[in-house]
Structures are given as C-alpha cells and as structure tokens.
Design brief:
By secondary structure, this protein is an alpha/beta fold. It has 25 helices and 30 strands. It has a seven-stranded parallel sheet, sandwiched between helices. Strands 16-26-25-17-24-23 form a six-stranded parallel sheet, sandwiched between helices. It has a five-stranded antiparallel sheet with strand order 2-1-4-3-5. The chain binds adenosine-5'-diphosphate and zinc ion. Adenosine-5'-diphosphate binds next to helix 10.
C-alpha cells in the first residue's frame, strides 16, 4: 500500500515533491498518473513518478486532490527511460517528463475531433407504419430522402441533402425519428498528399545478409545494437522496410528516426507507400490536432510504425520490436536545449530497456558508433556497394590556389574552376542535371571599407555581418539582427565599400550569368520559407524544370535524383577551419553525403571538389570513398588528444549579460565542481567560448572529460546545488553531456 507519491510539476525547481495518497485513491494511482494537487496555495497538475510507504514529510504532506483524465498520463513504459535521461544528462525530472510528452497531450486542452452525425431511428425505417403515415408530407419526404442516401450523414451535410429547413430536422430529432450521435474523426496529416502504394523490392545479396542480421537481433532475447554502414545508394531504406515488415508479422511495432522530416520527404514517403496508414508521421509541421491524434493512435495500438525526428523516439508503443536511426551521425539528433539528449544514444538505451533491436544506419558513421563496433558494444553490418553495382561517383579535387593563378581577369571572380565550368556546360548539353553545393548562404560574407578598414560586425555577437543582396540588408547569421546595407562607410564616409567572400546567393547570380540558358534554382533557408516551398522546388527538379540546383546542406541529405550526373562542391574546406575537434569528421561526412547525390541513375556521376587544402586527409578520404581510411587517420589524433570516442566530453556553458558576472559564476562553478570530480577527469577552463558573445550574452565554458562520464556528472550536479541564487539569477548555467558543438 503506497501512502505517498512523488510528483513532478512543470516548475523550474528541478525536483519532485511528496504528497499523501488519500485512502480513496489507493489502488487507482499508479506511476505516470496525472494528478492535481495544491502547490504553494495554487492547484497544479503534475505527474506521479514514485510511490512509497514512507516520507520525511510524514504528517505534513498535502493530499492529492484528484486523478486526471487517463488519456493524459505519462506512458509508464517510458518512465525508466526518463530516469536514465535524468541521470545521464544531468537533467531534472520535471524537464525530462515535460520533454518526452508532446505539449498538446500534456496540456490536455485538445480533444478528439468529433463530428455530429444524423441517423435514422428504427421507427423511421419502417415507412409503412401508421405513425409514419401520420407525419406531415414534408417530414415524410425528409425521412424518405435520408433512407435513399443510406441513412446516416454528417449533420452539416444533412441540410444540403434534403429540401427542408433546419427547423424540420430539429423537430424530427426531438420527436425521436432522427438520432444525433457524435463520432471521433482522425485528422490525417497525409490527407492532401496522394500516396501510391509500392511493393517490396527483391533484396540484393548485401541487403539480404543485412536483413538476416537484423532479424537475428529482433528475435534475440538480449539484442545487440547494429551499426549498418552502407555507402550512399546501397539501399539502406529498403533494408529498413523489410525489417519492419518482419517486426509487424511478429506482432511488434517499429520506430524510425530521421534527422529532419522537412529535409527527408522522400524517405518519409517511402514508409507511407509501403505500410499505408499503419504509419504515423510525427514532425514539427503537424497541427496540434494532428499531433494529438497521431500520439493517441500510437498509444491505443491503432498505428504500428512511427516515423519522425528526435522526439518520435518517445512514441508510446507497447510492443516495440525495432528502432531505426537513419543517418545516425547527424547532429540534429542532439537536442540543443535541456535535456541535451542525443536521440541516437537514447535509442540504444530504449532498445536495452524494452528490449528490442536497434539499427543505426549511415554512409558516414559517427566516430563514436564505429568505435563502439570495434570494442564489441555494437554489431557492424556493412553494405559496401551500390544497388545494381552502380559505380560510386568519380571525385576530382581541384586545387583553387593553382586555379586562381591560372584564371585571368573576370574569370577570377567566377568562383568556378575551369574543370567545373566545362563539366556544367557538358551536362547542360546532354540535358542532365547539376547540383552545386556551398555551405554558406547570403551574397557576401564581409563588408569592409577600403579606406579606413572598417568591418561591419554584429554588436550582439562576435561575428561579421553577411550581406544579402536581394533584401539589400546586412544580416547576423547568429542572432538574425538585420540592418539596411550602408551606401558609404559608417565610420569615414568613403563610398567605396568592398564586399568580400561569397555565399549561395552570389553563386546563384554568377551561375545565371555564366549559363544564361540554364534554369537555375537556389535552396537555402533564405529561399525556403516552409516545407511546402521545399517540396515545390524538389518537384520542379524531378520534372526537369530546373537544370542547376544550388544549395546549402539542405540539399546534402537523402535526395535521390537519377539524372544528377554532376555535383560541384564550391568551397569544400569551409568547415575545416572551425576551432572544433570534430571539424575534419564533419567535413568528411558532408562531402561524402553531397557526393553521394551524383550518379544514382543509369549514367555515372562526377563530383568536383574545389578547395584550397587538397592534401587534407578528410578531403582525400572523401575523394576515395574511404570511411575506414578516414577513421584510421582520425582516431589516433583523437586518442592522443583524449577526445571522444576515447573519452566523454561534458561542456558547461555560462551565459550572462554582464561579462564579469558570467566569468565569476564560471569560476565559482569550477571551484565547486573540482571537489567532486573523479581522479582521471581533465579540466579545461573556465574560459571564454570561441563564440565569446552571442545574441547579447557573454559566453564562458568549462570543458570536462573522462573515460567514465559519471565521474563528471555527479560532481556537476553537486556543483549546481552549491551555486548561490545570485549566480543563478544573473547567469544561465547549462550542462551539456556528450556535447557536439564546442563553439
Ligand atoms: P541509401 O539510403 O542507402 O542511400 P536508398 O535506400 O535510397 O539508398 O536506395 C537507393 C535506390 O536504390 C533507391 O532508388 C531505391 O529505390 C533503390 N533500391 C534499393 N534497394 C533495391 C533493390 N533491392 N532492388 C532495386 N532497387 C533498389
Ligand atoms: Zn548577432
């Protein structure tokens, strides 16, 4: 008999509170229950996270007032997972609980969409009866019409279907001839998309053995996570689809995580095409009503597969058989606010708790995942060749230093090497398609005065403004501050302002000029205001209304266009100069992914990589499609420097409006944490973050690393508790376990 319950409210207290379970509620209250109780004189809703016989607040604890609607409970099967996230990521229970449950379910304001129907009563169907004949001719006519129409209509349509007034219908309802009823309707996110069913493809040899390995793990009592390392175009998605079919046959459900729904519409659609309305698609573009319906459909077992971004991992299935994490290396799986969980890693934990199989798929696995295979934690399954033995695209690297020396006058400003220009002309002549990739948007990256050396930079952030020509504005890409572009130097009045550097907007302008007969489109977050515009451009590209598609990393992922035979990577070394130990890994992965868009059809593809550092090993390995080669060069570097995957890295970030206070808070934290750290923990800082100021806030960071992450996180928790309320009022302290970005 539990006498007390620990309840988490949605308050920023970071802890749970003890309440008494009234005798009348005993046996009705269970873990995950949503209840109402008094907190500081206010009635609040909260979740029961623990039941116990004893409380230190014995005799003083307030009673629970009420158990709320069963449809809004926290799924009990996810409580253990929530506990793990709390403990591993140094997060509070309340924050995790509130993150795992969609806001619309939590708030409980949303109801199922119900529609009123009008049905005929049994008496109305017997049209020969005396009572029927006694009705007025008008009423008889209405009932006869309704019988002809099948008897049951939505109330809204009834009036239009019969030639009578609302008054006549109301009277028939009142007298019992017609019956009103309410029915639940599901809001289908796919209602405006035509989905063609497709049939399972016969698997290649490599695909079959990958499937066999996955099936083995699905059936295993203690499944081991699988890393599916398959090159671009090896047919990983088809393997996922077959694995899910197997799961369904066994009466079990599946979750598929994709990095970003809007950027992977093709992948998402393929699940719907194969499994129809057994698939729930969860993404940020859903209306609240759709999200509510999808979530309840899953909880009630009416949907068997959930496809979605990060949070779909918490779909409340009861018989999970498989979790797929597609493009597992993607950074979007890491949530950049608290709790800072990585859905890829939490998927592995959910797999362990359920237990169920977990498949992490990628052409460029995260170093951590590949390392986990080498130490036997994960099982490695490889698919090294493309479907139908299509060749990998040929990658040519052009040294832009040499190239610039060769180019003359106007050509220098074109940003295109001779080779790339020649190949674009060639492809246009053959009516084939081209993708040009540059991971930077805008027109120019700097605006400087040729006289006094003034450089336009954001007051709120420690970065320069980017010039956007169409809008004629200076934009800060970090805080989105926008200014009218100056016509003269704001410092000295000199009218000769120089625009340096380039982004996609400038490449688009140059491309249009250089290839005046080509149809050109640009895809970056400036031109794509919503997922609809994204769909439109991709549709136009598929229909060959676009010859050259220019874009940022938006076009790097998952696109499968068979007539793209040339990919140009304009400045491949952009990411290499970042002060971040993962810059080589990110560059390798991005180049490989973009290159993988070429030559997916019957024609072989060519990739031209323009760079000023052709000898860099990330680029050389990408050129050879050699993940293993990259891994073998990168891991010794990481090992020497004690970076992941050989250690866990925790970043504590301090943000405040006053630089002195921020630095002081970081110092206080560092001193407090030092007392509790395990012996092997290495401490770097506190120091100003590489991005020292952002959106008006000064930023300091403390980096902690160790082989065992608990030796860090326990001390961090204790240090947090020791910070004075004054520190915490002025400075935000954020603990990021397994941080992905150290900027
Ligand atoms: P990946 O995700 O590994 O890059 P995809 O799953 O997109 O690869 O597959 C590449 C292409 O090959 C797709 O057009 C897909 O429809 C096709 N494909 C996959 N498996 C098969 C198969 N067994 N037989 C024929 N075509 C296949
Ligand atoms: Zn800014």
């Amino acid at each position: 008999m539990a006498l007390y319950a620990e309840i988490a409210f949605n308050l920023a207290t970071g802890r749970c509170f003890d309440y008494e379970v009234p005798a009348a509620m005993e046996g009705k209250i269970h873990l995950g229950c949503r209840v109402r109780a008094l907190f500081n004189g206010r009635e609040l809703s909260g979740y029961v996270l623990k039941l116990k016989d004893f409380s230190v607040y014995k005799g003083k604890a307030n009673p629970i007032l009420e158990i709320e609607d069963a449809s809004r409970q926290f799924p009990p099967q996810l409580l253990k997972l929530a506990d793990w996230i709390v403990s591993y990521y140094c997060a509070s229970h309340e924050c995790v609980i509130w993150n795992l449950l969609p806001a619309v379910v939590r708030k409980g304001e949303m109801q199922h969409k119900e529609t009123t129907y009008i049905d005929l009563s049994p008496a109305a169907k017997d049209q020969g009866s005396d009572a029927f004949k006694a009705l007025t001719p008008k009423r008889q006519q209405v009932l006869k019409t309704l019988v002809k129409l099948g008897g049951c209509l939505p109330a809204k349509e009834t009036l239009g279907a019969v030639d009578a007034s609302q008054g006549v219908i109301d009277a028939l309802v009142r007298d019992g001839w017609l019956i009103k009823s309410r029915r639940v309707e599901e809001r289908d996110p796919f209602s405006n998309v035509i989905v063609h069913r497709d049939e399972p493809k016969e698997l290649s040899k490599e695909q079959s053995s990958a499937l066999a390995a996955i099936v083995e793990e699905i059936d295993a009592p203690k499944p081991k996570p699988i890393l599916l390392h398959g090159c671009t175009g090896s047919g990983k998605t088809e393997v996922y689809l077959h694995s899910i079919s197997y799961c369904l046959e066994k009466g079990r459900d599946a979750i598929v995580l994709v990095p970003e729904i809007a950027l992977t519409p093709q992948t998402t659609l393929r699940f719907r095409q194969r499994f129809g309305d057994m698939v729930s698609v969860l993404h940020s573009g859903l209306t609240e009503g759709q999200r509510f319906d999808e979530w309840t459909r899953i909880a009630a077992g009416r949907s068997r597969i959930a496809v979605g971004a990060r949070s779909a991992l918490f779909a409340p299935f009861h018989h999970l058989g498989l979790i797929v994490v597609d493009e597992e290396h993607e950074t979007t799986y890491k949530q950049d606010e608290a709790p800072h969980y990585n859905a890829r890693d939490v998927a592995v934990v959910r797999g362990f708790l359920e237990p169920c199989a977990v498949v992490l798929g990628s052409a460029t696995p995260a170093l951590e995942s590949y390392y986990n295979c080498s130490i036997g934690k994960y099982r490695l399954v490889e698919m090294p060749s493309r479907i139908d033995s299509k060749p990998m695209p040929k990658v040519e690297v052009v040294d832009m230093h040499v190239e610039r020396a060769l180019l003359k006058g106007d050509e220098k400003a074109s940003f295109f090497s001779k080779r790339l220009k020649y190949l674009i002309d060639d492809r246009l002549g053959k009516h084939q398609q081209v993708i040009l990739f540059l991971n930077r948007r805008g027109y120019a990256t700097t605006l400087t005065c040729s006289e006094c050396g003034y450089t336009a930079s954001c007051d709120n952030c420690s970065v320069t403004y980017t010039y956007h020509r169409k809008a004629d504005k200076l934009v800060c890409h970090h805080c989105n501050t926008m200014l009218d572009a100056p016509k003269e130097c704001p410092d000295c009045g000199n009218p000769n302002i120089r625009y340096g550097g380039y982004g996609t907007e400038r490449i688009e302008a140059v491309t249009r000029k250089m290839f005046p007969n080509a149809m050109v489109a640009r895809m970056d977050s400036d031109t794509m205001s919503n997922s609809e515009s994204y769909r439109q451009v991709l549709g136009a590209f598929r229909e060959h209304h676009i010859d050259i598609l220019i874009g940022t990393q938006m076009i790097a992922k998952g696109l499968d266009f068979p007539d793209v035979t040339l990919v140009g990577i304009i400045q491949a070394d952009i990411g290499l100069n970042m002060p971040d130990f993962r810059s080589a890994e990110r560059t390798f992965s991005l180049i490989t992914q973009v290159a993988g868009r070429a030559g997916r059809g019957s024609e072989a593809g060519i990739v031209v990589v323009q760079t000023c550092t052709p000898e860099n090993y990330a680029l050389v390995s990408a050129q050879r499609h050699d993940f293993k080669g990259f891994y073998d060069q990168e891991t010794p570097v990481r090992k020497n420097l004690c970076f992941p995957p050989f250690t866990h890295l925790v970043m504590v970030l301090f943000r405040g409006e006053d630089e002195g206070e921020t630095a002081q808070c970081a110092e206080n934290f560092a001193q407090a944490v030092a007392k509790g750290l395990a012996k092997d923990v290495q401490v770097m800082g506190p120091m100003p973050a590489p991005m020292a100021k952002l959106a008006g806030k000064f930023r300091y960071q403390l980096l902690l690393r160790a082989v065992n992450v608990r030796g860090i996180t326990n001390a961090c928790r204790a240090a947090m508790a020791q910070l004075s309320p004054k520190d915490l009022r002025k400075v935000r302290v954020d603990i990021d376990v397994d941080a992905r970005f150290l900027m």
